[in-house]
């Protein structure tokens, strides 16, 4: 969305989900989604020129959905797990771990808590160690 004229915003691109941090944006694309292609990926974009984002990297993921970040940790919801990437080098995300067991749909990092919407309810994780989430509770 371009908001230089607040009364008439202009759509620049549309794709969901996307999170941006400084000059980099991360998007998850599924083969079966409206923004997808031939592979399910985490796409990394250089957005220094917001009108011309440039895809600079990709990482293969299973069936990604929502994503969020806290500091140098990127959390990606997957049909079969929560995937964690280290983004201390923003344009070169490094896979750290995955937490299997639930079908993850969306995440919201909030301070030291990661709120995860899963197919069977909500999971709360302690993310005081950003790259090592610890389950607090499951709410059904």
Brief overview:
It contains no helices and twelve strands. With 140 residues, it is mainly beta.
What does this structure look like?
With 140 residues, the protein is an all-beta fold. Helix content is 0%, strand content 53%. The protein has strands at residues 18-21, 24-29, 41-46, 54-60, 64-70, 73-78, 81-86, 94-100, 104-110, 113-118, 121-126, 134-139. The strands form three sheets. The protein has a four-stranded antiparallel sheet, with no helix packed on it. Strand 9 (104-110) and strand 10 (113-118) form a beta hairpin. It is globular.
Features:
globular; four-stranded antiparallel sheet; 140 residues; Thrombin, subunit H; 12 strands; mainly beta
Tell me how many strands there are.
12
Distance between the termini: 36 Å
**CATH architecture name of the domain at 18-103:** Beta Barrel
Q: Overall mean pLDDT score?
A: 89
The major sheet is characterized as:
4 strands, antiparallel
- Quote the CATH topology of the domain at 18-103: Thrombin, subunit H
Uncertain runs are: none
* Beta-strand content estimate: over 45%
- The general outline is globular
Give the strand line-up of the largest sheet. Answer: 1-2-3-4
Helix content: under 10%
**Rounded Rg:** 15 Å
Category from helices, strands and their pairing:
mainly beta
